[in-house]
Fold this sequence. Notes:
By secondary structure, the protein is mainly alpha-helical. The termini are far apart. It has one domain. The chain has a two-stranded antiparallel ribbon with strand order 1-2. The protein has helices at 7-20, 25-28, 49-54, 62-75, and strands at 38-41, 57-60. The protein has four helices and two strands; from the N terminus they run ααβαβα.
Amino acid sequence: MGRLHDKAAWHRRARRQLQYEPLCAMCLSEGKIVAARIADHVEPHHNDPIKFWNGKLQSLCAHCHESRKKRLEHRGLDNAIGVDGWPIDPRYPVYRIPYGY
């Protein structure tokens, strides 16, 4: 079961993840109830078989997987906006204290 391309084993693992956590983790963090469709690796595995098969998974809807998660992995920031109109990610540049203050 060490191969990354064992599709049947991956589908079983993904199916178990979605049964265990049927709602999108990112949407839930914002108080939204959205059905998840994708079992996603929390930490990118970069083709490492140990991380691929043993790494923690989260359930995501297709929108969060294709937009928020990809932006987070590529930019290191989550662009989601909270109900107050401000970014929810505390690392967002707007929260940096300007030099000299």
